[in-house]
Amino acid sequence: MADKQALNIVKFKKMKTDGVPISMLTAYDYPSAQLAEEAGIDMILVGDSLGNVVQGNETTLPVTIDDMVYHARTVKRGAPHTFIVADMPFMTYHGSIDESMRGVRRLMQEGLAHAVKMEGGQEICGTVAAIVAAGVPVLGHIGLTPQSVNMIGGYRIQGKDAKDAQRLMDEAKALEAAGAFGIVLELVTEEVARAISEAVSIPTIGIGAGRYVDGQVLVYHDLLRYDSSYREKRFVKTYADIGNVIREGISQYVQDVKQRSFPEERHVFNADETVLESLYGNAGKGADPK
Question: How many angstroms separate the CA atoms of 152 and 147, rounded?
Fold first, then answer.
């Protein structure tokens, strides 16, 4: 989509004001990003969820800044006209501001991202403010925060009681005050997600957060069932099942190779007779090279 113009944080805020939902999708490589851009996605998240769906890890914790830089850069090549957010991986923004800035610099300069995403609430707001002051847009992320999965006791729904709801509201307002341009709400009850969306002036992007947020984000591999043993998730809608298509295609290829039905004559390249003569001599002219 050569005529497409990448959106920016000012336009995203206007989309919220105008009631225009924001579409967001994860992508981790060149062809995935290219297809997402061609489909008209508003924003691409190069998520540390690549640790699960690309690297095969049980959690996102093993993902490094080098991983994120590599994947962000390849996504940027595939979607040069789309706003790209890159995740700050586990423990890269909880130390000194200088350490956090080094990771941000790499994602922006080497990874070519437009913005970074950080998980957490009030405990990271000082770092968020410093990064924003340095001229880097920050997308917040509260609710279920996968990098803290060991602290929160697994993948649990957030905002199910009044105390937890107030905590999430306080975190959202703190991130807004720190300068975040938007907030991802993951696995948050619909009622609480709606209240937060109405209380803050910045866009909220939901994943498993119901119908009343300002946008939605899904993982590429969930939306397309791009997996060998896909596990159903209540908050995901499947739009295609490419896992089965890929498996069936490869299986057919294997069968064709075993049965010598591939390659066919239309797939081969032929040399002229002088080439055969040089290899086999006159005795080999017209003979089967085997």
Answer: 10
